[in-house]
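Inverse folding, one chain.
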């Protein structure tokens, strides 16, 4: 399960994975961001906040994640990973090969700094 909140005034989507990612999580996130992107052309940023990366429920969940990235990455300016997870710490260097967005890691206590960076 993933909790997702759109900060409309800032054009920032905050995602908090709470358990292994499921196919329906990406459908739910798309239903939140797609109308905003349709009316504004893009998201200023996505903030992923997680103690650790929960992985995927199954292979079809992984495929849904890749499809979501493929369909949205050109419409997102920045991505911030806020976590002390070793995986999410290295994720920006991996993601930079696959997404157009600028990707940056922040320590778990730096939520406000990540929001400020996404707004800038």
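Residues assigned per position:
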């Amino acid at each position: 399960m993933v909790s997702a909140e759109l900060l409309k005034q800032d054009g920032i989507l905050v995602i908090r994975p709470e358990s292994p990612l499921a196919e329906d999580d990406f459908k739910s996130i798309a239903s939140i961001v797609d109308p905003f992107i349709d009316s504004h052309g893009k998201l200023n940023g996505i903030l992923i906040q997680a103690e650790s990366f929960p992985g995927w429920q199954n292979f079809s969940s992984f495929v849904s994640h890749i499809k979501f990235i493929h369909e949205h990455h050109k419409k997102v300016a920045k991505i911030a990973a806020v976590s002390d997870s070793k995986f999410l710490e290295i994720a920006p260097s991996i993601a930079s090969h696959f997404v157009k967005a600028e990707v940056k890691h922040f320590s778990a206590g730096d939520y406000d700094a990540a929001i400020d960076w996404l707004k800038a």
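The chain has a mean pLDDT of 89. The chain has one domain: 2-119.
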